[in-house]
Every structure is written in C-alpha cells, then in structure tokens.
Structure of Prepilin peptidase:
Amino acid sequence: MIRSILLIGTSVAASYFDIKTRKIPNWLCFSSIAIGLFLSRSFTSFVWHMFTLLFLFALSTFRLMGHGDMKLWMAISTYVNFEGTMYIMIIAAVMMIIYAICTSTKSSFNVIKTFYYDFIYNKRICFF
C-alpha cells in the first residue's frame, strides 16, 4: 500500500514538474529510486531492482527517450517488479508509436513502416 502511494505521488509530482518546467528534477527521481530500493521486500528483490536500473541505464544510451523520462522510469521500476517494468516498456512503445502517427510527417511514418517491416519480415530490430 505504501509503495503504491509513493508510486502515485512520484508520478503526479513528476507530471506536474514536467508540465510546468518541461524538466523532471533530479532530486525527485533519485530520492524515489533510493526510497524504492530501501523498500525492497528481500535481497533478491533488491538485486532485481538493481538489474532493472542497469538495464534501463543501458537502454538510455540509445537516446530514444529523454533522460528525464528515463530517470522517472528508473524510479518507477523500483516500485514494481521486472515484469511490470517490461509491461511499462511495451505500453510506452505503443504510446510513442501512436504519438508518432498522430504527429507524423512522411519521414516519421516511413521510419515506423521500416521498423515494422524489419521486425516482422526479417525478425530483427535495428534502431539505426
């Protein structure tokens, strides 16, 4: 229950700062990460949270999302398990595709089409 309240509070605060200043403060993300790690249920849970943080940090090097978004995602991942983090990633990818389609120019639509073609027909993912 406490984890859920902290997760919702972190998300609402990050949304507020993002809308007002277009930036998510470092203190909010890093304090949420520290609290989430402190509230780990067991050592195994702590290790999985650390693995998830390293995975998301490695993912942020592709620069597909802003670093503020990645820091928030890392903070959220300390409140949910690894499987929940993967579900968040799938939902975020679908939302980014919908956003790209809604605001698309011809070039961004071609990028999505090429990604889809490569993924479905060639069974590979190429970001570059």
Residues 1-80 form one domain.
